Amino acid sequence: MKILVVGSGGREHALCWAIKRSPLCAALYCAPGNAGIKDVAILVPLSANDVAGITAFATAEGIDFVVVGPEEPLVLGLADALRAAGIPTFGPSQAAAALEGSKGFMKDAVARFGVPTAAYGRFTDIGAAKEFVARHGAPIVVKTDGLAAGKGVTICQSVDEAYAAIEEAMVGRRFGDAGAELVIEEFLDGEEASFFAICDGTNAVALAGAQDHKRAYDGDQGPNTGGMGTYSPAPVLTPAIEAQIMEEMILPTVRGMAAEGKPFIGVLFAGIMVVKGPDGQPIPKLLEYNVRFGDPECQVLMRRLKSDLVPLLLAAAQGDVSGQNPEWHHEAALCVVMAAEGYPGDYLKGTRIGNLAQAGQVAGVEIFHAGTKEGSDGAILANGGRVLGVTAIAPRVADARAKAYEAVDRIDWKEGFCRRDIAWRAMARGL
Ligand code: AMP
Ligand code: GLY
Questions:
Q1: How is domain 2-93 classified at the architecture level of CATH?
Q2: Most C-beta atoms within 10 A of its C-beta, which of 35, 36, 50, 278?
Q3: Class of domain 191-317 (CATH, top level)
Q4: What range(s) does the ATP-grasp domain occupy (predicted)?
């Protein structure tokens, strides 16, 4: 098959890396890709959001299967356009991608499907929003309805902070149209994890869980980011909790979306908060859905996946995952993100990264590129906030972590930084 992956981040590098190993893959393309993806795929210079351009390319090139990485093109209708052109596509329709594109849509939908989640309200009126906050008190969470590049969520420790967040979004228009409507919801206190399932429109098969580190600095300090590191499996997602997530969240959502005429085809990424019940028992609650793989969760999932990724994604696109049974390496995988100094604020682009080949020689290590490009002299240059995902696999989390940092330490990049405490929760559990 000729396969096209859409996107340019570490997630897409990991997807390309896994797809390239499949005997089903005869030729692999990536639009637009990056300097690392170039080693495994033919780069196509089209923006991931260029729906018409990508559809025209896939048609002209005779692409047999498209895998869409990021949410934005899905929300823009890329999967609809590709399927309309007769090209099997892994990724939800625009209507189904609203599970991520509109938090209000997501909350109303999962309320109808009976999924356990935080209590909430939806607001377009500033007075009503403030009145809701006054009634519920703090801590409380204020979220923009639309996509806001991961910055639309404010955890408010006081009522005044929540009022300020509401004003900033609705009056200050800090997030533009994305913040014209707000979701305000109950604060959930617990341990967060990411869970993934592959959906075929009516049914779903569980993948695996992972744990991300959203804050920029060690000790979970500093500003929120897209994710500074991950590991899988996530010990907080026990087999019993995973089964509960499938039964109470994923399957009701897939069936509900189908019944409402918006079948979900693709990977459903459930952001989970495991809270403590009245008797101290762990209870998973849904924080949010994303309609794509997590980044950098995808890197550790692809590293642990033992079976062929292509038949699994293709089965979803073709509408039947019932025969699929993904197999996993029992080892732990861990990914350390290296970011450009200043991220998630302003950061320098174009700084040189050296010694990547030597770093990649550490046993069990794969370096997935997130934001890189090739300089005119062939050097690898930083070209984004998150730049590399140094990913290792080993029997124990502690060993995977040691290997990942050994590789990080071999990389010669003065303008880069990373967290040094990835998987601290697993370390604290002695794993
Ligand atoms: P989101 O953009 O919805 O993924 O939210 C970003 C982050 O905010 C999540 O990963 C959580 O860490 C946190 N968060 C979102 N909603 C809640 C909530 N209801 N209670 C506690 N934390 C939350
Ligand atoms: N790492 C979290 C995300 O991809 O949204």
A1: 3-Layer(aba) Sandwich (3.40)
A2: 36
A3: alpha beta
A4: 107-318
Per-residue pLDDT in tens (0 to 9) along the chain, 431 residues: 999 999 999 999 999 999 999 999 999 999 999 999 999 999 999 999 999 999 999 999 999 999 999 999 999 999 999 999 999 999 999 999 999 999 999 999 999 999 999 999 999 999 999 999 999 999 999 999 998 877 889 999 999 999 999 999 998 899 999 889 999 999 999 999 999 999 999 999 999 999 999 999 999 999 989 999 999 999 999 999 999 999 999 999 999 999 999 999 999 999 999 999 999 999 999 999 999 999 999 999 999 999 999 999 999 999 999 999 999 999 999 999 999 999 999 999 999 999 999 999 999 999 999 999 999 999 999 999 999 999 999 999 999 999 999 999 999 999 999 999 999 999 998 88
Domain boundary assignment for the chain = 2-93, 125-180, 191-317, 332-428
- In the CATH hierarchy, which top-level class contains the domain 125-180? alpha beta
Beta bridge partners of residue 68, listed in sequence order: 6
Q: Which CATH code fits 332-428?
A: 3.90.600.10
Name the residue of 213, 295, 300, 302 to mutate for ligand 2: max ligand atoms within 8 A of Cβ. 295
Mutation choice for ligand 1 from 182, 288, 295, 425, CB with most ligand atoms inside 8 A:
288
> What is the Å distance from ligand 1's center to 60 Cα?
42
- Residue closest by Cα to atom 4 of ligand 2: 294
CB of 275 closer than 6 angstroms to any ligand 1 atom: no
**Residue 295, ligand 2, Cβ within 6 A:** yes
Question: Which one, of 206, 211, 336, lies nearest residue 272 by Cα?
Answer: 211
Which amino acid residue places its CA nearest to atom 5 of ligand 2?
294
Per-residue DSSP letters for 97-158?
Answer: HHHHH-HHHHHHHHHHHT--B--EEEES-HHHHHHHHHHH-SSEEEEESS--TT--EEEESS
